[in-house]
Design goal:
Mean pLDDT: 95
Structural class: alpha/beta
Pfam families: Glycos_transf_1
Organism: Rhodovulum visakhapatnamense
Strand order of the largest sheet: 6-4-1-7-8-9-10
Radius of gyration: 22 Å
Low-confidence stretches: none
InterPro entries: Glyco_trans_1
Number of domains: 2
Shape: globular
Protein name: Glycosyltransferase
Strand content: 15-25%
Domain Glycosyl transferase family: 209-355
Distance between the termini: 9 Å
Helix content: 40-55%
Number of strands: 16
CATH superfamily of the largest domain: Glycogen Phosphorylase B
CATH class of the largest domain: Alpha Beta
CATH architecture of the largest domain: 3-Layer(aba) Sandwich
């Protein structure tokens, strides 16, 4: 029975000697154990203290083995011993040395990649805490790591690219590449037919647009554009509501700006809520359009998850959303950072209700075809062929 080791950058900690793990990561690992014909283990780097969206797991509660690396530690031969197939994060430069190690040992290695070089550069230059000289040093170091990354990917037995940008950036580096669209929307979480019909009736009846946004409220995520967009919609005479879910360093600024623009009756800050039991049901029943101001091209799960709730998406045309929008026909993509253009497409949606309904339906159908279990099944099959 082949053994699978998953080396992940997911957050992990020890609380009173018990593993404190990200719940989304655990859900994914359960799929590995259900679909893999053999033992499954994971190797995680331990951090200090707890973190959001995690919980303590009791001994015997997890169907897979958990091992920890010390903070700052790198996996070595002893960590890989006894495993036939290794699945490892390729975004983390601390794991790139494993390609040569597995090539020498004969173990099969597959990397997962999400970020592209452009996204890494964007993150550096959007970091307000770094001076210009430090940003330049970080950029040079990042370029050096990219050379290592591409060499490691060439030595690996396979590559799993999360999203269109990563696939386009690395498909020529390895002959065994599969693309997937990561998300947490299993078929059981998708909007129901009756919910889609209710949304359609409401939209076609001319009700106010119901906008929703979720995620970390940070400049890197474009959260600073949410209230200017809302203010422009008011000035344009568009009837709408905007619900914002999440927290972050811009939360106080958003609250202040909502009051300053007199938007308290239209825009609501709802804080952090549970994904499955609160955010998904709200989006399925009380929203029409997901508003994305994300500039980076990383493969955010939020696109597919919102689409699975039956929402059209209005987003900035980063490489990920531009490609997904074109493929799914599920909304609108506007130039990065252009508040006026975003307000304009929302006004178009308010005017062309039939187009909005069609985008909602297309989003729902596309997300259903790429539900969590479908995407995960393809990834497991990719690994099983190597084993």
């Amino acid at each position: 029975m082949p053994s699978l080791l998953v080396i992940s950058s997911a957050p992990a900690a020890l609380v009173d000697g018990k593993p404190f793990l990200d719940r989304k990561f655990v859900d994914g690992m359960r799929f590995y154990t259900d679909l893999w014909d053999g033992p499954v283990n994971c190797l995680l780097r331990v951090r200090t203290g707890s973190f959001p969206f995690g919980r303590v797991y009791e001994p015997g509660e997890l169907p897979f083995g958990v091992r920890f690396l010390p903070a700052g530690g790198k996996p070595g031969g002893q960590d890989l011993a006894g495993h036939d197939v290794v699945l490892c994060s390729g975004d983390n430069h601390d794991y790139l040395h494993l390609a040569g190690m597995c090539r020498r040992s004969g173990q099969k290695l597959v990397y997962i990649i999400e970020y592209i070089p452009e996204t890494r550069r964007q993150i550096i230059f959007l970091d307000g805490a770094l001076s210009l000289p430090k940003k330049i040093r970080s950029l040079v170091w990042t370029l050096g790591q990219e050379v290592r990354r591409r060499k490691a990917f060439g030595l690996a037995d396979g590559l799993q690219a999360n999203g269109y940008p990563a696939f386009a950036a690395y498909e020529s580096v390895n002959a065994n590449v599969v693309m997937y669209l990561d998300n947490r929307m299993g078929s059981d979480l998708l909007a129901t037919g009756s919910e889609m019909e209710a949304r359609c009736r409401r939209i076609l009846d001319g009700a106010p647009l119901r906008l929703v946004h979720s995620g970390r409220l940070e400049r890197m995520k474009g959260s600073q554009d949410l209230i200017p967009i809302a203010a422009r919609l008011v000035a344009m005479g568009i009837d709408f509501e905007l619900d914002i879910f999440g927290s972050g360093s811009l939360e106080a600024d958003l609250r202040r700006d909502i009051a300053a623009h007199g938007l308290n009756d239209r825009v609501r800050l709802n804080g952090v809520v549970d994904f499955e039991t609160e955010l998904v049901p709200f989006a399925r029943r009380h929203a029409d359009i997901y508003l994305s101001c994300h500039r980076q091209s990383d493969p955010s799960c939020t696109y597919l998850e919102s689409m699975g709730c039956g929402l059209a998406v209005a987003g900035y045309a980063n490489r990920m959303w531009a490609a997904l929008c074109q493929e799914a026909r599920a909304g609108w993509a506007v130039p990065l950072g252009k508040v006026e253009a975003m307000s304009g497409v929302l006004a178009e949606a308010a005017a062309d209700r039939q187009r909005l309904v069609e985008c909602c339906d297309a989003a729902w159908a596309f997300a259903g075809a790429h539900a969590f279990e479908h995407e995960f099944g393809r990834r497991i099959e990719h690994l099983r062929r190597l084993a």
